[in-house]
Specification:
InterPro entries: Redoxin (IPR013740), Thioredoxin-like_sf (IPR036249), Thioredoxin_domain (IPR013766). Helices cover about 45% and strands about 15% of the residues. The chain has about 500 residues and is of the alpha+beta class. Mean pLDDT is about 90; it is low at about 1-20, about 485-490 and about 490-504.
Length: about 500
Amino acid sequence: MKKLLLIVLCTLFIVSCSNKKTVVISGKVIGGSPLERIEIVEMSGVATLPIANFGVDAQGNFSDTIQIPKNGVYTLSYGGSYGTIYLKGGENVRLSGNSAAGFPKVFTVEGDSKNNVFLQKTQTYLDNYFSKINQDIITQDETKFIDQLKKFKSDLNKEMDNLVKSTGADSDLVKWKKDELDVNLLMISGQYEMMHGQITNKPNFKVSQTYKDFQKELKKNEDEKIKVYPSYRNYILSTIGQDFQAYMAKDQKADVTTTEKFINFMKTKKDYSQTIKDYLTAFVATSVDMHPQQTSLDKLTKLLDENIKDSEVKAGLKKVEEAIYGLKIGTAAPSVDFIDVNGKKVSSSSFNGKPTLIMFYASWNSYIAESVVPMLKEISNTYKNKVNFVFADMDDNAAQFKKTAVAMLNGIEGQKLYAKGGLKSEMAQKYALYGFKLPSYVILDKDAKIASKNFMNIMDPDFKTALDKVSGITGPAIAPPQMQVQPAPAPADSTKVKTEAKAK
């Protein structure tokens, strides 16, 4: 019986492991810098947040094992540039590129490469194909324009089919790319519908039913497209943009967010599915109203929760909320463990009994030594008797933490601790930390409850207000460090200059 149970447990373990979407990604960036990070971002969801963040060493080498939510196309970013990469659970992908020659938009892929070779070759063909299209296409009569788009679709799908044969790309990627082509053709058709009358001086121009039928064909599986392609959300918004602007002009109520007006507007659109309404509403909310200065966050989140039905959209919005604002004020701070510079375990429970300011930072935030540390010294000197100061390093390993804590935080009183695993740590997950949020700050009260939003700027007036509140004292205004101004050079002796010029 025990043997049978062991076999069952082993089988379950194997199945659970096989269901995990683990990808090993490694490679080298020529000209890469340890101060730059490689990020992989989910491009289709509502949140579009990084799922991985890792660095390169002094020679540009990198390696990481990451968990992906699903097989698919992701955004690859490095040094302010962007590209796309296909990731599939269980694969080992090795990339190489040159930061001065277009990485990460341009890279060579080895290992499990067939899907990325297909993706790259397809995109190259598409770019070349569309670069030769005459820009006057918008001026063509409708019938000729539709024929052109049909030819584009036929030519490009045929080339993709040829590339499938030569690369062996997976069917889900091929479908993704063909559906993306349909979305791009829809966007071109939308531009034609919007601009043709104006450009050809035909103000009363309206597209025919044949044109609408062609667009309908491109819109097949619309609910699926709205989930996968942010560009499709943009397309739908562009088609209703003028109607929404007119609706907005009639609704002049004060203290009403654009999101609330959009929700009310979409209630008048009976021909859109709930899925489309949910994704478009989330798109508007995250683009317009969910920002650090939002003063009616509770009202906004309640509105979204009541009107959005899709559970994935709700989960995505929750991630965005935590990424922007941090954890909800008044809730218990997550319990996590750190290690100190001597490798000793330190529990966050040790902060209890006194308010705590936690600063999250990493070695690639090298500028903080000059711009942030001087202000932190003044702040710690003011509040140190009333507030704990904890500096939580989010580097990839403990060795880097030890170097960084000494080099960057020299002279500041407080606990210098390491969240083991950095941005993969329990700390990062529980506090919704991402690379773009470093450095950032959160304040806990004496009972270890969240007492502030997540600050990314200690000169935010609300930062000082929150510190004053938990400490019970009123500190001085927080000012940036004084810049050292070099004295101007003494004016030249004009007589001497002229004499030397004549001598030459």
